[in-house]
Amino acid sequence: MAILDYVKEAVRKRNPNDTEFLQATDEVLMSLEKVAEKHPEYVENGIFDRIIEPERQIMFRVPWVDDHGKVQVNRGYRVEFNSAIGPYKGGLRFHPSVNLSIIKFLGFEQCFKNSLTGLPMGGGKGGSDFDPKGKSDGEIMRFCQSFMTELYRHIGPNTDVPAGDIGVGGREIGYLYGQYKRIRNEFTGVLTGKGLNWGGSLARKEATGYGLCYFTEAMLNDKGNSFKGKKVVISGSGNVAIYAAEKATQLGATVIAMSDSNGYIVDNEGIDLDLVKEIKEVKRGRIKEYVDTRTSAVYTEGCKNIWNTPCDIALPCATQNELDEASAKTLVGNGVIAVCEGANMPCTPEAIEIFQSNHVLYAPGKASNAGGVATSGLEMSQNSLRMSWTFEEVDQKLKTIMENIYHTIAKTAKAYDMEDDFMAGANIAGFEKIAVAMMEQGIV
Ligand code: NDP
């Protein structure tokens, strides 16, 4: 029997229906088995028991009025998971699929990710089952104002600092911030991802996608390889996907496929990113509109089959569990060399197993997509200092952080006799820093 089986059992008993949360905790606890062996004091002090239970879970009603004068009600969430190494930090997701299990899995992952950045940030996550698609700006604003009217009492620049995630970009952060400021009558760095002339950081918008590529390049370089001349497939066409495509292209790769939740495009001449930005960022349209302008491209209905497109590097940047065992087998059959997660938990456990057993370089999101929150941390620093750094300064810090993350997790995996198991390396390295802080702070 494994040492941490009792913790797995306790999580299952307490969260019987929370599929995504259990998937995330199982993966982490499996990686931590060797840490438990080496550090019996962590078991004695209930570190594992405590780390899988959020410090606080908030659920609330979000009433708002649509453009037809009809009252709508959504559910809001904020899970404040762990504050051992800093204020809770993590995004807000607005998507109809949002439920407590998804927010808990994201909050749990966030703790380890934030720890890996080396910055003083605890973990949290929030959101709502609100669907921003097809809503007018007025509806989005009224929803955000109502959401913040409850959330404001739980957050603060030294307590909990939310940011964006799926369905929450610059527009939503603006409306949320405006309402916070109005209620609290203070101008503070309570959210990140803010507009550039009211406290936002240059390069925050690009950070997750750029960071993903900096991480991937560091990993490839370590193995004597690089992005140069590679074919890349990227799922999604949102914030993370677009800027991953931009940086991969700058590093010499050709991005040949992207998607949204309806379908995917393949453009063997290389994706025209200006066109994607115009469709997704300006018009808030659908990816299929791409083929109206680019006749070299082909659109296929249904997003899952994007992984049938042969490529050297796959960057899943849409959502959890979007890449399953069958897709992983196809990618391996087509000769993929690296799979790095831009989204949170996009690969199923079975897919990860396929990659690892076939010696495909696999990087978990908590390491490879940490660039977004790292730059949010840099935004917090700039807010505290009341200073703004240049794009180049922030970008350089981001690059250094991502390279450090790669080397830290690679070194940790090796130290635990699991060379090239970057999942284990990330889980262990992220955990160790939190565990030490929790030990030093007593039973809280
Ligand atoms: P966006 O809302 O900007 O874009 C999400 C993209 O993924 C869209 O193309 C969307 O398509 C697609 N998508 C969303 N849900 C699904 C689904 N159920 N099935 C298929 N496709 C889907 O979000 P982000 O780019 O910000 O986030 C993408 C991922 O990256 C998420 O997992 C998020 O947690 C993670 N992440 C984001 C960070 C950030 O800084 N933004 C930081 C770290 C991780 P459609 O438009 O059709 O909905």
Keywords:
2 domains; Rossmann fold; 15% strand; alpha/beta; globular; 7-stranded mixed β-sheet; 17 helices; 444 residues; 12 strands; binds NADPH dihydro-nicotinamide-adenine-dinucleotide phosphate; 5-stranded mixed β-sheet
Structure description:
The protein is α/β, with parallel strands linked by helices and 444 residues long. Helix 12 (325-333) links the parallel strand 10 (313-316) and strand 11. The relative contact order is 0.13. Helix 8 (204-222) packs across helix 9 (239-250). The mean pLDDT is 98. Helices cover 48% and strands 15% of the residues. The chain contains 17 helices and 12 strands. The chain folds into 2 domains: 5-187, 3-Layer(aba) Sandwich (Rossmann fold), CATH 3.40.50; 205-359, NAD(P)-binding Rossmann-like Domain (Rossmann fold, 3-Layer(aba) Sandwich). The strands form 2 sheets. It has a 7-stranded mixed sheet, sandwiched between helices. Strands 1-2-4-3-5 form a 5-stranded mixed sheet, sandwiched between helices. Bound molecules: NADPH dihydro-nicotinamide-adenine-dinucleotide phosphate.
Give every kind of bound small molecule, once each: NADPH dihydro-nicotinamide-adenine-dinucleotide phosphate
**CATH architecture identity of the largest domain:** 3-Layer(aba) Sandwich
CATH class category of the largest domain: Alpha Beta
Q: What string gives the helices and strands in order? A: HHHHEEEHEHEHHEHEEHHEEHEHEHHHH
Q: Number of helical runs?
A: 17
Distance from N terminus to C terminus (CA atoms, Å) equals 29 Å
CATH homologous superfamily heading of the largest domain? Leucine Dehydrogenase, chain A, domain 1
**How many β-strands, per DSSP?**
12
Helix content: 40-55%
User: What name does the CATH topology of the largest domain carry?
Assistant: Rossmann fold
Q: Main β-sheet: number of strands, strand sense, barrel status?
A: 7 strands, mixed
Please give the radius of gyration in angstroms.
Answer: 21 Å
Strand portion, in percent?
A: 15-25%
Q: List low-pLDDT spans.
A: none
Mean pLDDT: 98
Walk across the major sheet and give the strand order: 9-8-7-6-10-11-12
Structural class: alpha/beta
In the residues, how many domains can be counted? 2
General shape: globular
